[in-house]
Amino acid sequence: MLTKRIREMEAIYSYRSLKKEDLQEICTFPQSDEELFYVSPQFKYPLTPDQILKVLENRYEPTVVVDEESGQVIAYANLYEYKDDVCWLGNVIVSESFRGQGASKYLLETMIMKAKSIYRVSSLLLSCHNTNSSGLAFYHKYGFKPIDMRITKLDNQKRIITIQMELEI
Q1: Does the N-terminal peptide bond of residue 46 adopt cis geometry, omega within 30 degrees of 0?
Q2: Which tens digits make up the pLDDT trace of 139-152?
């Protein structure tokens, strides 16, 4: 029953390329400094359209998910560092009000499809911080496997572990 319900909810989502007018809405998605750090350590809370545009200088396929019923932009991600037969998934974020409703899964499936069909990669990579347990569980659920880790010293001298994960597609 739950699987059917999720499929029904996913049917109301669509995706498209990012438009400049989407930026302000995306900036409302991160609910805290920590959550924004998970999206990108380069971002500073609160997120602004200029920060997104700056990161997009080296990104591909900036994509939004739209709720078909309301027309609202509800999720965002992009690809980066396309090289040989791999690329990276980045800046993944879903509006707080659409979490747990299939939007994350729809966004991930969309980005996997784009990586595979447009760039013909055999692997999609991502980085996820050790403190982002819900993100780690989500990516693991959809087949991503840990392949490496990096220890980063933050501005406040604390350290965080970034787990690099891979999905063979």
Answers
A1: yes
A2: 999 999 999 999 98
